[in-house]
Amino acid sequence: MGSHSPNIEGTADTFHQPSTLLTPPPSNLSKFRDVICQPILASFIAGGVAGAVSRTVVSPLERLKILFQVQSVGRNEYKMSVPKALGKMWREEGWRGFMAGNGTNCIRIVPYSAVQFGSYNFYKRFFESTPGAPLDAYQRLVCGGCAGITSVSATYPLDIVRTRLSIQSASFATLSSQGREKLPGMWRLLVLMYKTEGGITALYRGIIPTVAGVAPYVGLNFMTYEAMRQYFTPKGQDNPGQLGKLGAGAVAGAVAQSITYPFDVLRRRFQINTMSGMGYQYKSIFDAIRVILKHEGIKGFYKGITPNLLKVAPSMASSWASFELTRDFLTGLKDYDL
Fold first, then answer.
1. For 304, left (φ over 0), alpha (ψ -120 to 50), or beta?
2. I need a surface site. Which of 87, 105, 175, 183 has the fewest CB within 10 A?
3. Per-residue pLDDT reduced to its tens digit, 168-218
4. DSSP character at residue 2
5. Is 22 a member of any domain?
6. Cα angle vertex 223, ends 41, 215, to 5°?
7. What are the entry keywords (predicted)?
8. What's residue 249's pLDDT?
9. pTM of the predicted model as reported, rounded to 2 decimal places
């Protein structure tokens, strides 16, 4: 009996070994799928897509908002209604005028939105009692504020360059003598600002009012969106439909931007504070507030609010819709065999 034992064990090994060898190792495609379907990375990628889509959709209104914002007292080049200003932009610069600065904006907004959405989902983990547990309004506000500061700090140099690109070809009288054929592109402008306007600090000029505005803006945006998302969700369902997501995004954007808009005006003013032909001479944030109130009144802090509100609905709606579509697609890949 004992002499047969080794043969039985050997036979068992013989039967089990081929089954191990027949199990195929995971493919590179499967490994890649397992990585990108993780919630944080999926949100990161979806945020980048959402940013590029939303900014391109509203590029003409976004540029017009900036032109209105930087037009101080005494300048009348763009002192007109939104339709007339858009018509002026089209006549003088054509399609390129509508898209001026949008390339840089997309280059900026992809990492900006990716970091914003990704970091929001990262910060949420510190407040969740269990993974995926819903947060209250205060927690969403805090997570959104932290996500806003993180994203703007990471991409601010591209934001200031984008502002310069948006106005350098506009028909402001003080800029017309420069000649459009000599206007620098994005990378050249970055280098030029670094060399001639104070090094790295030039690329972060205006970041204080930006951070002061972006933290409550992003916080309010996420908080309002989550609340509106529940409002637009039909009874008996876990998620709203596409129209519900669009509506929630539009309301969230309008509320957040209306409350924090003066910070956006201050940001744009400081971003061109040393720009030749357009520069302001603000010594500090408080000096800027004093000067604007003195010469432009309270309305000075809301210049460009009309095109801004006009762009909020399509911008935020397309942003949230494309974000959720992309994120759901990526996280849903785990259910497919590759």
1. left
2. 87
3. 766 565 555 444 455 677 788 888 888 888 888 888 888 888 888 877 887
4. G
5. no
6. 80
7. Calcium, Membrane, Metal-binding, Mitochondrion, Mitochondrion inner membrane, Repeat, Transmembrane, Transmembrane helix, Transport
8. 79
9. 0.62
Whether residue 165 lies inside any domain: the answer is yes
- Tell me if 286 is assigned to some domain: yes
Dihedrals phi, psi of 275, to nearest 5 degrees:
-75, 130
Provide the 3-class DSSP secondary structure of residue 280: coil
Please, what sign has the CA dihedral across residues 159, 288, 201, 276? positive
CA 284 to chain centre: 27
- What pLDDT digit, counting tens, does each position of 56-97 carry? 888 888 888 888 887 766 666 777 888 888 888 888 888 877
- The DSSP secondary-structure symbol of 59 reads H
- Identify the DSSP state of 111: H
Q: Let me know: does 337 contact 33? Beta carbons within 8 Å.
A: no
Residue 94: the pLDDT is: 82
97 CB-contact burial (10 Å; exposed 0-12 / middle 13-18 / buried 19+):
buried
Show the tokens assigned to 277: 């032909």
Task: Give the DSSP letter string of 56-73.
Answer: HHTHHHHHHHHHHHH--T
In the numeric block, the tokens 């002192």 are attached to 79
* Res 8 pLDDT > 60: no
Distances (CA, A) of 23 to 17, 19, 26, 83: 11, 7, 9, 65
**CA–CA distance, 245 with 239 (Å, rounded to integer):** 9
Show the domain range for 90: 29-335
pLDDT above 70: percentage of residues in the chain: 83
* CA separation for the pair 199, 247 (Å, rounded): 43
* DSSP conformational letter for 275: -
Q: In angstroms, what CA-CA distances link 280 with 75, 82, 197, 291?
A: 13, 24, 14, 10
CB 107 within 8 A of CB 56: no
Residue 1 within a domain: no
CATH for 59:
1.50.40.10
> Quick one: which of 118, 44, 112, 51 has its CA closest to 319?
51
The residue with tokens 């959709």 is 57
Q: Provide the number of structural domains found in the chain.
A: 1
